[in-house]
Amino acid sequence: MTDHIFVGTDTEDVKQNLLLKMANRHGLIAGATGTGKTVTLQILTEGFSKAGVPVFAADVKGDLSGISQAGSEKHKLHEKLLSRARKIGLIENDYEGMLQKGYGYAAMPTLFWDLYGKQGHPVRTTISEMGPTLLARLMELNETQEGILTIAFELADDEGMFLLDLKDLRALLNFLSDNKAEISREYGNVTSQSVAAIQRSLLRLERAGAEQFFGEPALKLDDLMRVDENGKGVVSILAADQLINSPALYSTFLLWLLSELFEELPEVGNPDKPKMVFFFDEAHLLFDDAPKALIDKIEQVARLIRSKGVSVFFVTQNPMDIPDSVLGQLGNRIQHALRAYTPKEQRAVRAAASSFRENPAFETEEVITDLGVGEALVSLLDEDGVPGIVGRTLIRPPASRLGPATRAERKAIIADSPVGEVYDKSIDRESAYEVLAEKAEAMEKAAAKTEADAQKARDKAARKQTKSRRSSRRKTKTVSDHILYEIKLVGRQLMRRESRRLIRGILGGFMRK
Fold first, then answer.
1. Residue-wise pLDDT tens digits, 73-85
2. What is each CA distance from 374 to 36, 43, 305, in whole angstroms?
3. Which of 89, 14, 37 is nearest to 376 (CA)?
4. DSSP element (H, E) containing 38
5. What Rg, from alpha-carbon coordinates, does the chain have?
6. Which residues, 6 or more positions from 377, have their beta carbon under 8 angstroms from its beta carbon?
7. CB-CB contact of 57 with 279 (8 Å)
8. What is the pLDDT of residues 389-404, one digit of tens each?
9. Which of 111, 118, 214, 432 would you label with 332, given CA atoms 20 to 30 Å apart?
10. How far apart are CA 347 and CA 369, in angstroms?
């Protein structure tokens, strides 16, 4: 098996070969739109795949999906591809010798992935695996809000609650807001205003489609590091034509994936070839508005992940899009044409030219703006890890299709995928949302019971008070009746006495007569 990837031939007839054992020193593919960056990414991906190295690449424009299909003699650029292959010495002048001389059409084993699950297998991770730091960047939180988000994660860990999806996080934030006084005493200050701001950011995240990204089954790195039955590395293509419209989600996902590779893979030192290659297209999105702490983290990962056998290639329009601390970690460089119409663009050209080992045959700064499509300045590390002298290079043509796969072709590959049964259906197991819902229900029942007991006590007290008033009224009535009886009795006695006196008086008068 070869120990290098043939990139192209320069104007001095030097073969530009990327040594596999130097690939984990990382790389840069730069150039203006339409200069051939995607094709360069494609031929490097093919080379790694043929060498048995799995590849992960984001497909921003959809063109890279063509790597799943073999090139064709019927392709409109067939003759131009053959002409390029002959010109750089990849094949002889006779077309019949093409298959024997190192160039032939071939497809690469491919898996299609999509955060939205439309153009590939769904890619998911959990809220817990993402962590508060990357999640805060994704949600564009300030320092105070990030602190409260960290408290939420700590609380979930302490209570043994799983944070799997966005509804778990929303439920936990509601719990924080409802119990902020108690939580603030134990974990730090939690304010309703900050929690409300996080919830608003969460709503924006949902509208961007992130709800489909968070959940289970979570992506397993082993499924990105596959080799097929023929020993070729499987190429994982992430459909990013829609995802790129949410730059924060796109860049944060790729950074999360890179961090997972760094944290989970074992140390392998300096292997003969990478364990995996990671292409980060539109790399400027990773660094736009990124705080220094995050850039420091990216630099650390880029510096240390090579000992895990992972090679990272940043693909961007301008090398100045990448901070110097990270740019200095990229040993293999392929620079396509740059435009220099404005003072800023001219400074970028000068900076790009100064990063190459000078070639006395030409002025690098002048050549950068003069490169044609499919042509690049190439400087690759040699056996000793020293950057090679820059060469003006014609990039080799791809063996796979130059252009996107059709919808039917993509669908057929997805249907035949070995991971479809694992990822195509989501799982919703018990997590923070259910735990907190049960806790809230239990609290409501306890509160209802307490209220019912209190109501019973109030009713009992009211009945006792009513009975006391009735008893008092009965006592009052008995005394009154007794007094009335006495009055009536005295009245009757007086009436009888007066009646007898009157009768005696009348009878006495009759007798005197």
1. 999 999 999 999 9
2. 5, 11, 30
3. 37
4. helix 37-50
5. 42
6. 333, 334, 335, 356, 364, 367, 368, 371, 390, 391, 392, 393
7. yes
8. 999 999 999 999 999 9
9. 111
10. 12
